[in-house]
Design goal:
232 residues; alpha+beta; 6-stranded mixed sheet; 16% helix
């Protein structure tokens, strides 16, 4: 069976009765990440899409493409959409968030650089099959969107450590901006951007991703995974 949205509960992981839709991604939503890649800070959100076929469960064995150069990992807060949103207000957008989790935006960095140099879209660097490992979701009802901490540990060393308070375009404003351009549907996921510290991963790497919000009263979400053999 392919990917299905899941919810973290006391008993474990529960499959959600919800379709699996598109993934809307946001580029350069943390200033320090833009700087580390020598990119300008955008005046408005940079949006791109991953199809549903990019989604794989984060806690299961997932691999990286073979023979396509460095594959970078970008750790992001993921928002599960639970209601249709078209040209929605910020309060409507916040009310439609059905859950919050962690997503990895896997990026073939050398491929992306070549595409950017030629003025081409990024899809074959970012939207390939399996390019979005996604955790289960936890409740967003009490989440303080201005203080969600996101961390990634690789092979025992902390690699990324960011806070949603540093986002250039915060959650409510970001969702409203997205819905002015295209509709979000139940089962869609929004990746909200990555903090600084992105870098290459290799087969066998041990990863631990943590999402927490002290003000929410929700237990931290932690997911461990190991990068499997490269995809042929």
């Amino acid at each position: 069976m392919g990917y299905q949205h899941r919810q973290q509960s006391i008993q474990g992981l529960d499959v959600l009765d919800m379709p699996v839709g598109k993934v809307v991604c946001v580029g350069r939503n943390y200033a320090e990440h833009a700087k580390e890649l020598n990119n300008p800070i955008p005046a408005e959100p940079i949006l791109f899409l991953k199809p549903a076929t990019a989604l794989v469960p984060m806690e299961s064995g997932w691999g990286i493409p073979a023979d396509q150069g460095a594959c970078h990992i970008e750790t992001e807060m993921a928002l599960l959409i639970g209601a249709p949103l078209t040209k929605a207000s910020e309060p409507e957008c916040l009310a439609a968030i059905a859950g919050v989790g962690i997503g990895f935006d896997l990026t073939l960095r050398e491929v992306q650089s070549r595409l950017k140099d030629n003025g081409h879209p990024w899809e074959i660097a970012k939207a390939i099959d399996g390019s979005c490992p996604l955790s289960a979701f936890v409740s967003a009802d009490t989440m303080d969107w201005s203080s969600v901490e996101l961390r990634l540990q690789r092979n025992g060393q902390w690699q990324q450590d960011g806070n949603s308070g540093d986002m250039i375009t915060p959650v409510a404003q970001l969702l409203a901006f997205i819905t002015r351009h295209f509709t979000l549907l139940p089962g869609d996921v929004v990746l909200t951007g990555t903090p600084a510290g992105v870098g290459p991963i290799s087969t066998g790497d041990s990863l631990r991703a943590i999402l927490s919000c002290d003000k929410s009263g929700v237990d931290p979400l932690m997911v461990e995974s190991v990068v499997a053999e490269p995809q042929a």
